[in-house]
Every structure is written in structure tokens, then in C-alpha cells.
Design goal:
By secondary structure, the chain is mainly α. It contains three helices and no strands. Helix 1 packs antiparallel against helix 2.
């Protein structure tokens, strides 16, 4: 038997400013989403009780802004997970199929 471990050398973790910027973006967009949701709830209560037209318009604007912030949060979180290696990159090209390999797998080969 050979001695030693079989694992390869590990690379030292280093600070990556691009990942920090994405993480700050995720945090900022989720905080903005929370603020806009609370604002939409407040505008909705005001519009319902007082019947002000401007409150309805602000409710619509706050709701749309909250949806956009949540969408941005999801997009940045996906980008962060790709950069950290938590999920596979689906845009990478597939390996070419060997033309000599039989089609259909094991069942077709029988």
C-alpha cells in the first residue's frame, strides 16, 4: 500500500471582491423588498380606510417595486450560488456524444 492521503492539494481561500459585491447586492435588495412590502401594506390600509386615490397609486407602485426587488434578489442569489460552486452552470456546453457508442443504452444493446 502506498502511504499518504489521496486528496489533491487544496487551494487557499482568498477574498474575491466580486462575490462580496454580489452579497451586498442581495442584502440591499432583500432589505428594500421588506421596506416596500411594509410600505405597500401601509398604503393599502390608508387607501381602504380613507379612500384616497393617491394611496391606491402608491400601493401599486410599492407592490411593483417589491416584486422587482424580489426578482433582483433571486437573480443575484443564483449568480452568487454559481460563483461559489453550489449549483451547476447550465450554460456550459455538453460533451459530444461518441458516434461509435451504440444508441439506446444497455437495453438496446441486448
Amino acid at each position: 500500500m502506498t502511504g499518504g492521503k489521496r486528496a489533491g492539494d487544496r487551494t487557499k481561500a482568498r477574498f474575491r471582491p466580486a462575490l462580496a459585491l454580489i452579497a451586498v447586492g442581495v442584502t440591499a435588495s432583500i432589505v428594500a423588498w421588506g421596506y416596500l412590502v411594509v410600505a405597500a401594506i401601509d398604503f393599502g390600509a390608508t387607501a381602504r380606510h380613507d379612500g384616497k386615490t393617491s394611496a391606491w397609486a402608491l400601493l401599486v407602485v410599492a407592490s411593483l417595486g417589491a416584486m422587482l426587488c424580489l426578482f433582483l434578489t433571486f437573480m443575484l442569489a443564483i449568480r452568487l450560488s454559481h460563483a461559489l460552486g453550489f449549483s451547476a452552470d447550465h450554460h456550459a456546453p455538453r460533451p459530444k456524444r461518441d458516434p461509435a457508442a451504440p444508441k439506446g443504452g444497455k437495453r438496446a444493446a441486448r
